[in-house]
Design a protein that fits this description.
Elements (H helix, E strand, L loop, with lengths): L1 E6 L18 E7 L6 E3 L5 H5 L10 H18 L7 E4 L7 H6 L4 E5 L2 H9 L4 E3 L4 H8 L4 E7 L8 H11 E12 L1 H6 L12 E2 L2 H10 L2 E9 L5 E8 L9 H12 L5 H27 L4 E4 L3 H9 L10 E2 L17 E2 L1 H7 L3 E4 L5 H7 L9 E4 L5 E2 L2
Amino acid sequence: MADLGMQPASNAFLPSAAAVADEKRFPLRAKVCDVCRLVQVDYDVPPRELFGNYVYFSSYSDHWLDHAQRYCRMARERFGLGPESLVVELASNDGYLLKNFVDMGIPVLGIDPSDTVAAAAEKIGVPTMVEFFGAELADKLARSRQADLIIGNNVLAHVPLLNDFVSGISRLLKADGHVTIEFPHLLELIEHVEFDTIYHEHYSYISLFAIEQVFSRHGLRIYDVETLATHGGSLRIFATHSQRAGIADSAALIEVRARESAAGLGELDTYKRFAQRVEQCRVSLLAFLADVKHNGRTVAAYGAAAKGNTLLNFCEVTPADISMVADRNPNKQAKLLPGTHIPVVSPEALMQAKPDYVLILPWNLQSEIREQLRDIAQWGGRFVTPVPVTRVDP
């Protein structure tokens, strides 16, 4: 489906130039199963290489915080959650979502493999276990209490052992409990050439067709789905135990199944064509950067996001092409991007540099970023987005 070359882990930021010599790179190739059409990377990087000193904190995106708050209000009403309930979030990050339930007086438990983000969650009153979730941990937890609601936002893709993970959900969930899972929709990835969402932390790229098969294997049934704008186009699936009666498939679920079928997600040729469109994206970005350099202008980037690192490494961009990348997260600032070694600075430093162009790497948050940096217009600065092809604002 896509061969993106040898790349470092997308969040393995370098503390200094001295660390470059020890930087590790791994093959980054996404392939599709010719039976179930699950798309997965074919080289598994050890989890501790990816998550041991994790620098992605959800709380630095206002858009994502608002998304979480709206979800929690919906879940409380839809599932009748209260002081006697238990909400468990898998890959709970810095507690950005669960803190909303805490404020509502609803008991919670976060589970995350990164000690850095778990420590941040504990500081705001969100109890968090530093563990990799799976069937063994689920059995241990279920001996004392099962969950009324299990949440997993953008975690399925990060799981190397998908069957073990989903089995754990089934074991930890109450007989009348619910599961909601959000994940970037493979259909959107293919249609909009979102290849920069492929990186080593993402073992799988998921369609409704594929995940229904996995859930069914472990006694869970998806009964509803919502389409979301997050991460370039996502699905939020709703599931419960298969033997539970009285919950019919929603019209939305039936409609997404039909969309996937019409888009050819069951056909191998669909995935072969995707690789050709990825190459077109690379050609367009490199042509833009070459033109900028030829005309003596400057480019900075905004958002030291994992998707940006995939893009920049695939295109073999260097600090000579892009002088800096700004990010609000202080845990990333004063470091170098993995692979390309472009320095990460504060947004204030970018504004002081006054680049001619600002390349928005987390294009899924571009509305928020354009508002934050609207003052670049004062010196004639222009925004650029790289996917599906490079576009420069008029």
